[in-house]
Q: What sequence folds into this?
């Protein structure tokens, strides 16, 4: 029987990182500390590890994008840079065109500030972005499968909790989920 | 007149008696009243009867799993805070948890101090939908 290749899947919550200095770690900080400790504990073969990141387009400038986001305070991207320093390689993950469409949808939502308007806009965002999310997931799945299956590599996938990429990948890979804590009540809303 | 402050009530639902005992021993001294249910059906019933402030719910239970238990609870109680504890987390249960307005999804094993911290953190956040 053919042995499935290993894939490490990390479900994440997107949260906007606050600009103001914080006195103590937030629940989101703790989530990332826990994820980092768990990933380091896996002792992956770093030179064979390929990182796929939710929201990171295939653009040829993937590392620069991650560096910029890490500098602006993203714990997610700070961890990615740490893993890259260990020898892992960051891969472009998403279709630029689909990400731009998602960005446009999100912009419409974020322009609405009043409660009722915002709630209606959120409902619209969720309905429209559902189909878009399926397309994004399909792109990510093919990207990972085509790059990894023929080679002796380990994919490490950071993906928002509403994605279903793992459902697409589970036929071809033995998926190991890395979960520490997901503090849903500490985020204002769940975005795709 | 009784001027004792009202203790917050926590309902722990888990099929492992050892975990329920741990919850009592851990959370009782933290000034929580801890109620225990050894299965989903009992948990749904106790939630209706006792109206707890927070539920600690195991995902993997025989007969009625954690997600099904929570679905039944949510039919009559949209507001109770819920912390899910699981040793077998996967994306499906995470998405279900998000849809069912769970406050926190915590992976086993966990440190006792971590659970106390998470519960206190959950009580700091207002009750309500996390998704608009």
A:
């Amino acid at each position: 029987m053919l042995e499935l290749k290993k894939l490490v899947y990390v479900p994440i919550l997107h949260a906007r990182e606050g600009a103001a200095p914080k006195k103590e770690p937030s629940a989101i900080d703790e989530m990332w500390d826990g994820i980092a400790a768990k990933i380091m504990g896996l002792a992956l073969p770093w030179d064979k590890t390929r990182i796929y990141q939710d929201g990171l387009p295939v653009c040829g400038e993937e590392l620069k994008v991650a560096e910029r986001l890490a500098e602006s305070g993203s714990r997610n991207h700070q961890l990615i840079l740490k893993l890259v320093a260990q020898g892992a390689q960051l891969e472009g993950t998403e279709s630029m065109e689909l990400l731009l469409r998602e960005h446009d949808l999100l912009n419409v939502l974020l322009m609405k500030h009043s409660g009722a308007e915002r709630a209606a806009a959120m409902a619209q965002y969720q309905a429209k972005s559902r189909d878009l999310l399926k397309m994004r997931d399909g792109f990510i799945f093919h990207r990972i499968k085509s790059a990894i299956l023929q080679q002796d590599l380990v994919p490490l996938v950071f993906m928002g909790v509403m994605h279903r990429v793992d459902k697409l990948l589970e036929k071809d890979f033995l998926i190991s989920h890395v979960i520490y804590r997901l503090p849903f009540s500490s985020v204002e809303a769940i975005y795709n | 007149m009784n001027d004792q402050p009202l203790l917050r009530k926590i309902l722990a639902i888990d099929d492992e008696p050892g975990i329920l005992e741990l919850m009592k021993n851990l959370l009782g001294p933290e000034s929580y009243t801890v109620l225990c249910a050894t299965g989903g059906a009992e948990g749904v019933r106790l939630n209706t009867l006792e109206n707890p402030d927070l539920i600690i719910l195991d995902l993997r239970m025989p007969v009625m799993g954690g997600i099904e238990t929570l679905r039944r609870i949510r039919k009559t109680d949209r507001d109770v805070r819920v912390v899910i504890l699981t040793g077998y987390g996967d994306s499906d249960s995470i998405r279900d948890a998000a849809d069912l307005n769970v406050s926190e999804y915590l992976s086993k094993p966990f440190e006792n101090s971590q659970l106390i911290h998470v519960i206190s953190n959950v009580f700091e956040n207002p009750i309500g939908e996390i998704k608009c």
Notes: The first helix of chain B runs from residue 17 to 27. The radius of gyration of chain B is 14 Å. The CA atoms of residues 59 and 65 of chain B lie 6 Å apart.
